[in-house]
Amino acid sequence: MTGALQEIEARLPDLSRAEKAQLLQWIARDLGDAFPGISSVSGVLGGEACIVRTRIPVWILVRMRQLGISEADILNSYPTLRAEDLANAWAYARLHHDEIDQQINDNESV
User: If DSSP codes are grouped into helix, strand and coil, which group holds residue 5?
Assistant: First the structure.
């Protein structure tokens, strides 16, 4: 364990519950770009965010949801998807809404 981690561990018991909650929020915000199950690889679908194990872009799933397609129907349409993939896609889309909106617009204007 690094010195910084040891220092944090040593100070943790002295923090109030509110301070611990604030610390967790900072950590979560710092890790905000880390989305399990979502990957962006240049050269794969133009670097668009996709569900890992698939080539299903997040924007397609978001657009389906916007069109009123239920999660159950989305999962039926893509048998390789799991419910946790949709949860990851929604979380990614919440923090990257401008990117997703742009991809939807770019792909629907073709």
Answer: helix
User: pLDDT, tens digit, for every residue of 11-52?
Assistant: 889 988 888 877 876 776 666 556 778 888 888 888 899 999
Q: Given this model, what pLDDT does residue 77 score?
A: 95
The CA distance from 54 to 86, in Å, is 13
Provide the 10 A C-beta neighbour count for residue 63: 17
Contact 43, 93 (CB under 8 A): no
Task: Quote the tokens at residue 88.
Answer: 């990851």
Q: pTM above the 0.85 mark?
A: no
Work out the angle at residue 90's Cα, subtended by the Cα atoms of residues 95 and 100, and round it to the nearest 5 degrees.
Answer: 60
Cα 53 to Cα 21, 38, 47, 79, 93: the distances in Å are 34, 9, 15, 12, 18
Query: Which pair of structure tokens corresponds to residue 85?
Result: 């993939």
Angle at 52 between CA 51 and CA 55, to 5 degrees: 65
